[in-house]
Structures are given as structure tokens and as C-alpha cells.
Design goal:
Order of helices and strands: HHHHHHEEHHHHHHH
Number of strands: 2
Number of helices: 13
Structural class: mainly alpha
Strand content: under 5%
Shape: elongated
Strand order of the largest sheet: 1-2
Largest sheet: 2 strands, antiparallel
Distance between the termini: 40 Å
Radius of gyration: 22 Å
Number of domains: 2
């Protein structure tokens, strides 16, 4: 919820510039007049509602927030940064003047792909159970071990391991989006997309792109989220008239488009208060479609 007077003031000013009454704006946006009145009087509003109003006024959603300076970060947010320090260290490692990234600590003992896959499966289970503390504790080691495996892998094993690391990074992105560490989430999701692309796995890369769209929604970047979701859907699910047999056989790959990743498994339905854009595309998921967070090779 947004609980500032700035959106209401900006909304009223934009409405006046367009020569619209509250009734006319409400009709154009498909909202009630009481909603317009409440916002203009400084009442709270969901960011999705502000997005709808911005679209009706033909402006970016951010325009409704004016140019006010950001508010100081609360102390509890600083505490979160310290609590996430181990994860931050592996997602944004030290880079020396030679360009090589160095991690705070290397894996102790032997590292096996099967063990890392099992850890990922357990972390995904904990994530869906809302045990974020456990997920935060598991992720740093998983990232370090995935790097170690790739660094020591034979060339024929590299693609498989890149996809595994992409899934680990994507889980990190989901988790960090949930705890509102958006910039760090962007880093994790970007790494997931790059690894999936490097592995030649367009479906996992598309999954990362939709995770990024969800992140953009949480940041209020609705236009960016909509554009990304549309482009990803067009890339991963070509038009029937131009798709090859191979492309058609993998249909349903982006069926999770527009659905927050926490609920993006086949048969799952997001709750009514989940954060989603009203204009993102939605697709019917065939029963054969793959879950977003698979841990199979």
C-alpha cells in the first residue's frame, strides 16, 4: 500500500491538466469515483491502482510520485543488510584490479553435483514453506559450491552445471524479492539469466526473465515488466504459423508469465493479494508444462 499524499496531489494536478472531472477519470480507468476522491485526499492506494490511473492519464506510474527525495532507510532495513551479508558476499564478490572475482570462503571438503541438487530441492521446499531464515542460511554455500563445480568441470559437463547454478541464482532472486532486497535480487536474477543462456537453455532463461518481471512489478516498474513479459513470451513461444516442430513440442514453456514465482508451479494458484500487473499476459498451462523451479538435470 502507498500511504503518502504525493500520489494524490500529483493525480489531481494531472487530472486538471487533462481537463477531466473525477467522474471522467474514474470512467476512463474503470474505477469508482470514491477511489479517485480518496486518493486525491491523501488516502492510501495499492500501486496497481495507481498504475491503472497512470495508464488512463497516459503517463508513467512514477509520475504520480513526483520528484520527492527518498525517505531515509529505517534501521531495520540496515539490520537486514547485515543479516544477509554472507549472501551479499557471494552475489557481489570482491573484484580486484585483475578482474577476477574472489569469494570470502571456498567450499570445505568434497563437492558433489548430486548433493548440491538435493540441497537446492530442499531450499525450494523451505522457500515455499516461508522458512526464509533457513533459505538465507543455505544459499551462500550453494552459490559457492556451484562456482567451484563449474570451475573444475570438464567441458562436456559445463552446460548442465551452468543450468544448475542458474536455478540456484533464481531461487536467490525469488527470496531476495520476497524480503524486499530488490537491487540484490536483480543481481541474482541477472546471473540466472546469463547462466541459463550460456547453458543453451531458453526455458530456464525465460523463467529468469519472468522472475525479473515480477521484481519490476514489486518496484512499481509496470511498463518494464509488461514489455519484458511480452518480449519473453514472443521469444519462447513463437507464433504457430512460424514455429518449428521443435518449438511447438516445447509449448507451455512460459505459461507462468505474469504469475509471481512463489506460486509458479503447475496447479498452484496465487492468492488474491499477490502482487501482479493487471496487463501482464496470462497463458493456460498444459499439464505437461514444466514447473518454474525444477531441480532435475
Amino acid at each position: 500500500m502507498v500511504d503518502e499524499s504525493a500520489p494524490g496531489t500529483s493525480l489531481q494536478n494531472l487530472r486538471h491538466r487533462r481537463g477531466l472531472t473525477q467522474e471522467a477519470l474514474a470512467d476512463a480507468a474503470g474505477l469508482s469515483v470514491s477511489t479517485i476522491r480518496k486518493i486525491e485526499q491523501g488516502g492510501s492506494a495499492r500501486i496497481e491502482t495507481l498504475h491503472i490511473l497512470a495508464r488512463a492519464l497516459d503517463v508513467e506510474t512514477s509520475t504520480l510520485f513526483g520528484s520527492a527525495s527518498p525517505t531515509p532507510t529505517p534501521d531495520r532495513e540496515e539490520d537486514n543488510k547485515l543479516n544477509l551479508l554472507p549472501l551479499r558476499q557471494v552475489l557481489t564478490p570482491v573484484v580486484g584490479i585483475g578482474g577476477a572475482a574472489s569469494f570470502a570462503g571456498q567450499p570445505s571438503g568434497e563437492v558433489w553435483e548430486a548433493d548440491l541438487r538435493a540441497a537446492l530441492s530442499e531450499a525450494v521446499r523451505l522457500y515455499h514453506a516461508d522458512d526464509f531464515e533457513a533459505v538465507a542460511a543455505m544459499l551462500p554455500r550453494m552459490v559457492r559450491e556451484s562456482h567451484w563445480l563449474i570451475d573444475h568441470a570438464a567441458s562436456e559437463e559445463r552446460s548442465t552445471l551452468l543450468r544448475l547454478r542458474a536455478e540456484i541464482y533464481q531461487l536467490a532472486g525469488w527470496f531476495l524479492t520476497q524480503v524486499r532486497q530488490y537491487d540484490l535480487a536483480y543481481t541474482a536474477i541477472r546471473e540466472a539469466i546469463q547462466d541459463a543462456t550460456g547453458a543453451g537453455d531458453p526455458l530456464t532463461a525465460a523463467s529468469g526473465a519472468i522472475s525479473q518481471a515480477w521484481l519490476f512489478i514489486r518496484q512499481g516498474r509496470f511498463t518494464d515488466a509488461e514489455s519484458l513479459a511480452r518480449d519473453t513470451a514472443s521469444t519462447i513461444e513463437p507464433r504457430m504459423s512460424t514455429a518449428s516442430d521443435a518449438e511447438l513440442s516445447r509449448g507451455g514453456g512460459s505459461c507462468f508469465a505474469g504469475r509471481p514465482p512463489r506460486y509458479a508451479t503447475i496447479g498452484a494458484t496465487p492468492p488474491t493479494n499477490s502482487c501482479r500487473s493487471p496487463r501482464l499476459p496470462h497463458r493456460a498451462c498444459p499439464s505437461s508444462a514444466r514447473p518454474v523451479a525444477t531441480t532435475s538435470s
